[in-house]
């Protein structure tokens, strides 16, 4: 049963005028100290940074999909919003003239506070490919959570900075298992279309696809899928497909065709910085503090919440600790970030009335990777677009949806590579460990076995048909399955369990979850369109009834 006790912190006690009152005067211009000044934008970001003692009508923790939707819609409704983001602004070019590092040459910009890269594909031809890098607040976090490495984007834009942009709406017949308490009719009529439009989702031009050199790998993937009787589907993306065609024609600087993806994309991808966040900033009512990390949220005397924030430098050290107040707080720190915060705040007495569902229902979207070694007459191409555009749909029969993914090494590898999303039933839980002072996740590596079995329903059959074998050199020596990681963390503050059916946290009025933590572990396809659509649905209701 959900606990529904409500603490005496109802922001409805705060007058509507105060809630909607401007905050721009409160956010004075402060210079970022030390390294942070060089990392963040010297202009907009520095001017926006939150000051100690500030009062904020709506504070959003995190700038990924959920946070960006909340910020835009609140601002459009007249509410001043401040977004707190632990990562960098990613709006200033480095010494090479580019904002983001290339996948083939990782540098300090590539990883979040690591001294060595942690590449998802750790080996090539059996040899380890990780290398030393300077420790820095880089863009990709490879967070080691015991039995699994959870990859996440860090910076203004969250996961949209590092992801493949694959923007997939689940098949309607699968939606009931994805979000059982949500009416599919309203999602498919209103919120999925709104999300797709807001994100700028589109599909590759099928005519261009047939001859594009950079999609030879996808055409080989399609041929092999179809010869084994599996449907191949085009997968929409937020990449600017017209730009990619120009990249191929050699008329613009290359981005997808230069292998950019995991460490950011310098040109063609429509990350949130170019869509929701740009629109939110354009309202004049949204400000952002990069390199700021929320560490505590607790009821404030007199209503609203006290929020404690560490400002950090690009070495990860705290340079200032700021305490501010907010009438409403939106947790949008991503599935892992939101879950860890809530579990800690409940256990350590800051938010004791959160219910026992907090931390539960976490899943990895069934992610598992593998490669296949093709025959010499099936080359996959030296030039590969880093943006996948197709997948193999065996969800109904075998519980797997496999992206035909690139292996943009710049050389012919004769390899086909796949990221499968599977119907893995295992769910993990975050709990607070007072001894280590950390929220821990009890996922176990062996829990990936169902995912491997489901992916094999596709690839065993293709290998048998084609007379090919699995690659064993990409994740170690003689290791077929990339079963140690996920790109798609989901759950930990599940909708209608830890929260009500619109993301309002049980136990506290004015606290909301609005990110991937709401989704119970699996979306049957890549998750960000569903995260965005659910956020659109929930914020519409919250604005209509709570403000
Ligand atoms: P998210 O985008 O993770 O944003 C959370 C933000 O909160 C981050 O910017 C954090 O730095 C920040 N944060 C965390 N804790 C704090 C704190 N305490 N204080 C301040 N800020 C904090 O959350 N999905 C797809 O649908 N298609 C794809 O093609 C795809 N490819 C992917 C490839 C990679 C390599 C990765 C890592 C992910 C991929 N994903 C993909 C997953 C997708 O990016 C992810 O589901 C969403 O970004 C999650 O959105 P949220 O709003 O939940």
Describe this structure in words.
- The chain is α/β, with parallel strands linked by helices and 547 residues long.
- The chain has one domain: 3-Layer(bba) Sandwich (FAD/NAD(P)-binding domain), CATH 3.50.50.60.
- 26% of the residues lie in helices and 19% in strands.
- It has 14 helices and 20 strands.
- The chain has helices spanning 16-20, 34-39, 44-48, 65-76, 172-178, 184-199, 206-211, 216-227, 241-249, 276-282, 334-347, 395-398, 449-466, 528-546, and strands at residues 55-61, 81-84, 123-124, 127-128, 140-144, 149-153, 232-234, 286-289, 292-299, 305-312, 318-331, 368-373, 390-394, 400-405, 415-422, 430-433, 438-441, 469-470, 485-486, 511-513.
- Strands 1, 2, 8, 9, 10, 11 and 20 form a 7-stranded mixed sheet that branches. A 6-stranded antiparallel sheet has the order 7-13-14-15-12-18.
- The longest helix is centred in the C-terminal third of the chain and has 19 residues, at 528-546.
- The model is unreliable at 1-44 (pLDDT under 50).
- Bound molecules: flavin-N7 protonated-adenine dinucleotide.
- The site of flavin-N7 protonated-adenine dinucleotide (FAE) has 39 residues, from α4, β6, β9, α11 and α14.
As for the CATH topology, it is: FAD/NAD(P)-binding domain
Broad shape: globular
What does the largest sheet look like?
A: 7 strands, mixed
According to DSSP, the number of beta strands is 20
* Overall CATH class: Alpha Beta
Helical segment count: 14
Query: Which spans of ≥5 residues are poorly predicted at pLDDT below 50?
Result: 1-44
Supply Rg.
23 Å
Give the CATH superfamily. Answer: FAD/NAD(P)-binding domain
Helix content: 25-40%
Structural class: alpha/beta
CATH-scheme architecture:
3-Layer(bba) Sandwich
Give the tally of structural domains. Answer: 1
Strand-residue proportion? 15-25%
Average predicted confidence as pLDDT: 92
């Amino acid at each position: 049963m959900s606990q529904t006790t409500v603490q005496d912190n109802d922001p409805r006690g705060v007058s509507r005028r105060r809630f909607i009152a401007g905050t721009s005067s409160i956010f004075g211009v402060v210079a970022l100290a030390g390294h942070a000044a060089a990392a963040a934008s010297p202009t907009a970001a520095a001017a926006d940074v939150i000051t100690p003692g500030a009062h904020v009508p709506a504070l959003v923790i995190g700038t990924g999909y959920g946070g960006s939707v909340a910020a835009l819609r609140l601002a459009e409704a007249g509410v001043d919003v401040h977004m707190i983001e632990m990562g960098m602004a990613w709006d200033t070019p480095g010494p090479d003239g580019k904002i983001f590092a290339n996948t083939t040459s990782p540098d300090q910009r590539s990883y979040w506070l690591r001294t060595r890269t942690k590449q998802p594909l750790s080996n090539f031809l059996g040899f380890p490919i990780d290398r030393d890098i300077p420790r820095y607040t880089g863009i990709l976090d490879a967070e080691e959570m015991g039995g699994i490495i959870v990859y996440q984007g860090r910076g203004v834009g969250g996961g949209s900075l590092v992801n493949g942009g694959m923007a997939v709406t689940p098949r309607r017949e699968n939606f009931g298992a994805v979000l059982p308490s949500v009416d599919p009719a309203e999602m498919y009529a209103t919120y999925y279309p709104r999300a797709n439009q807001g994100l700028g989702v589109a599909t590759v031009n099928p005519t261009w696809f047939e001859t594009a050199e950079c999609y030879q790998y996808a055409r080989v993937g399609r041929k092999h899928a179809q010869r084994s009787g599996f449907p191949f589907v085009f997968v929409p993306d937020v990449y600017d497909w017209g730009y990619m065609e120009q990249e191929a024609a050699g008329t613009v600087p290359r981005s997808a065709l230069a292998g950019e993806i995991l460490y950011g994309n310098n040109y063609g991808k429509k990350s949130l910085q170019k869509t929701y966040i740009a629109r939110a900033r354009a309202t004049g009512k949204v400000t952002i503090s990069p390199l700021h990390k929320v560490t505590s949220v607790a009821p404030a005397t007199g209503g609203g919440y006290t929020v404690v924030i560490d400002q950090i430098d690009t070495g990860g050290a705290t340079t200032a600790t700021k305490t501010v107040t907010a009438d409403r707080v939106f947790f949008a720190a991503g599935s892992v970030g939101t879950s860890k915060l809530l579990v800690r705040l409940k256990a350590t007495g800051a938010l004791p009335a959160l219910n026992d569902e907090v931390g539960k229902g976490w899943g990895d979207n069934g992610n598992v990777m593998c490669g296949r070694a093709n025959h010499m007459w099936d080359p996959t191409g030296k030039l590969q677009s880093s943006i996948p555009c197709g997948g193999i749909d065996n969800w109904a029969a075998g519980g797997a949806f496999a992206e035909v993914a690139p292996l943009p090494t710049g050389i012919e590898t004769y390899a086909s590579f796949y990221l499968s999303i599977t119907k893995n039933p295992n769910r993990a839980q975050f709990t607070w460990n007072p001894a280590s002072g950390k929220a821990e996740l009890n996922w176990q590596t062996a829990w990936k076995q169902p995912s491997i079995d489901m992916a094999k329903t596709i690839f065993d059959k293709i290998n048998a048909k084609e007379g090919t074998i699995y690659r064993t050199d990409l994740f170690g020596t003689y290791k077929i399955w990339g079963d140690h990681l996920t790109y798609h963390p989901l759950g930990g503050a599940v909708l209608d369990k830890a929260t009500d059916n619109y993301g309002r946290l049980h136990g506290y009025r004015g606290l909301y979850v609005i990110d991937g933590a709401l989704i119970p572990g699996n979306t049957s396809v890549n998750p960000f369109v569903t995260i965005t659509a659910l956020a659109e649905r929930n914020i519409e209701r919250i604005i209509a009834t709570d403000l």
